[in-house]
Structures are given as structure tokens and as C-alpha cells.
TrEMBL record:
UniProt key word Acyltransferase: yes
Pfam families: Acetyltransf_1, Cupin_2
MF terms in GO: acyltransferase activity, transferring groups other than amino-acyl groups
Name listed for the protein in its UniProt record: GNAT family N-acetyltransferase
Keywords: Acyltransferase, Transferase
SUPFAM superfamilies the UniProt entry points to: Acyl-CoA N-acyltransferases (Nat), RmlC-like cupins
């Protein structure tokens, strides 16, 4: 029996680094062949593989590949091999989409089946591309406070201020996160709370820099906070409290699978707060 041809349409699809489509054409432990689509301006994270060798072949566009201290420009129809143990990073500094064939042996594992029908960052702001979550440091609080204190934002938030955030940073029951762009500038923040409870986590607040709103950062932040909240295998529910008249935020939460539910007896909401809970499955994290 002859094998069925594999195409992007039939291959396992994943999203890498939140922006790149990856189609796993050959997906065996001894060999991986992945077709990747990297949008203009996007870049992977610098990394190395202890055992795997990789070959990056450019199908369309132009790749900039950092290999240890060197940088190579790889044009359409050519490729480079990356030996095991070499730090490398792929960037698309061109204006067109970059399409790559990435061959690895043994196969490089991706970060799991974070499947998405298509990455939501495409065609959105350059800010979304390359922005990622990291833990908040004390030096970030200046930005955090300026986002929070902005007059249009204040009515939607409960207590805040420097002392509140410093307590949150030190509280083992909470995780304080910032979303930073590729230059490590803070563009948004969010807090997870109630981490001592095994099954359910609260997103305590999330705020995008006022000048960055409406560009997809809120959605990226929420998705990454959800992924953090669900990182523990026991957690299956995530809840939050949102002001009834915060229509923008409520619409974002609904579009990401949160639903308005009756408030549990043990929960105290903001004065005009609405209880929303997410209890979907991982794929609904995608748009
Ligand atoms: C709510 C907030 C986090 C959204 O961030 P954002 O970066 O502007 O949101 P995004 O650009 O990712 O938009 C995602 C979705 O949110 C919804 N949305 C965002 N702003 C909206 C608005 N003003 N009106 C209606 N819907 C809106 C839309 O559904 C949008 O979907 P789309 O991508 O299909 O257009 C941001 O506006 C914010 O920081 N507000 C102040 C603080 C706050 O209210 N936090 C929530 C406390 S619970």
C-alpha cells in the first residue's frame, strides 16, 4: 500500500512562539520535518538543543538566523545546518512572510499541542509580535502603576497602588506577570491569585498600556495568563471579577471562553462586579 501524501492541510498544526504556524509533516522521534510560516517582523526565542541537529531550508522569503555569535542571511532556495548544542534564533526581518522547512534529528519537541486554527497575532500590531509574559520585577512597578492610575482605567479596578503591588509580588498565593515587547518594555500586566487552591485560579486584574489598547495585546495577555493558570494539571477552572459596565473587557473575556455565572458564596466581588468563569478545554484558548 502506498503511503498517503502529507500536506499542510493534513499535518499536525501547532503555533510556535505565539506567532509562527508550524506544520509537522514528519513527526517521529528520530526525525522531524516541519514547515513553518513566520510573519514579517516575527522572531523565535534564542535556544539550543542538547542532542538534535537541525537544518533550516528557506522555501520563500528570507531568514536571518543567529548561530552562536554569528548571523547568517539565508535566501529562498538555500539553507543552513545548526549543530547540536549551538544557540540559534530565527528572525524574519523581511517584509514578506518567511516559509521554512525545518528538519531535525532526533526530532525537536515542540511545547505541546497548543493548537490554534491560526495565530491571532497575524496582521495585528507589530507590538503583539514578539511580546511575551515574564514575572514582574520591582523595577517594572513604575510602568504598572502608570497604566493602572490612568483616569479611564481606574474605575474598573479595585484597590491598587505601589504597596498593594509590592505585597502581591511577595505573596506566595499570587503571581504577578508583565507582558513585555521584544525590547523588554512593559506593555501590560496581569495577576493570578488564589494559587493555594488546587482546582481554581483567579485572574485578579489585567491592564494594557493605554497607548497599546485595541491592538490585540489584551487577548495575548489573557491567553498567556490562562496558560499559566492552567499549567498545574489540577487546575481546570479560572475565574475573574469584571465591572458590569466594562463592556470591552467583558467582550474579550467572552470571546476567550469565559461565561457569566452565579457568584459562589465564598467570593466577594467589586461593587458592580460580574463573576465570570472559564472552564473550557485548551483549544478554546485560540481565537
Ligand atoms: C480590557 C483590556 C485589557 C483589553 O485590552 P486590549 O489590548 O485593548 O484588547 P485587544 O486589542 O486584545 O482586544 C481584544 C478584544 O477585546 C474586545 N475589546 C477590547 N476593547 C474593546 C472596546 N473598547 N469595546 C468593545 N470591545 C473591546 C474586543 O472583543 C476585542 O476583540 P477583537 O480583537 O475581535 O476586536 C484593556 O482595554 C484595558 O487594559 N482596560 C483597562 C483595564 C481593565 O478594564 N481591565 C480589566 C479589568 S477586569
Amino acid at each position: 500500500m502506498s503511503p498517503d501524501p502529507i500536506s499542510r492541510g493534513t499535518a499536525r498544526h501547532a503555533v510556535w512562539d505565539d506567532v509562527c504556524d508550524a506544520y509537522h509533516l514528519v513527526d517521529r522521534t528520530d526525525l522531524g520535518v516541519v514547515e513553518e510560516a513566520v510573519p514579517s517582523g516575527a522572531q523565535g526565542r534564542p535556544h539550543q538543543h542538547a542532542r538534535s541537529r537541525e537544518f533550516f531550508y528557506v522555501l520563500a522569503g528570507e531568514a536571518t538566523i543567529a548561530l552562536g555569535p554569528q548571523e547568517v542571511r539565508v535566501e529562498e532556495g538555500s539553507g543552513v545546518e545548526v549543530p547540536a548544542g549551538t544557540w540559534h534564533q530565527v528572525r524574519n526581518e523581511g517584509e514578506d512572510e518567511l516559509r521554512l522547512l525545518v528538519v531535525s534529528s532526533p526530532r525537536v519537541a515542540d511545547s505541546g499541542p497548543r493548537q490554534s486554527p491560526r495565530p491571532f497575532a497575524r496582521d495585528r500590531s507589530g507590538l503583539v509580535v514578539g511580546s511575551h509574559l515574564r514575572r514582574t520585577r520591582r523595577g517594572d512597578l513604575k510602568d504598572v502603576l502608570s497604566f493602572e492610575q490612568e483616569p479611564e482605567t481606574q474605575p474598573f479596578l479595585g484597590q491598587g497602588g505601589r504597596e498593594w503591588h509590592e505585597r502581591a509580588l511577595a505573596d506566595p498565593d499570587m503571581e504577578h506577570w508583565v507582558l513585555v515587547d521584544r525590547l523588554d518594555r512593559v506593555v501590560a500586566f496581569g495577576i493570578l491569585a488564589g494559587l493555594f487552591r488546587p482546582d481554581i485560579v483567579e485572574i485578579r486584574r489585567m491592564v494594557v498600556a493605554p497607548e497599546g489598547r485595541g491592538q490585540g495585546l489584551g487577548r495575548l495577555l489573557l491567553r498567556q495568563l490562562l496558560e499559566q493558570a492552567l499549567a498545574s494539571s489540577e487546575v481546570s477552572r479560572v475565574w475573574l471579577d469584571v465591572s458590569a459596565d466594562n463592556t470591552g473587557a467583558r467582550s474579550l473575556y467572552r470571546s476567550m471562553g469565559f461565561q457569566e455565572r452565579p457568584t459562589p458564596a465564598e467570593v466577594t466581588l467589586l461593587e458592580d462586579g460580574v463573576y465570570m468563569e472559564w472552564s473550557g478545554q485548551a483549544p478554546t484558548l485560540a481565537r
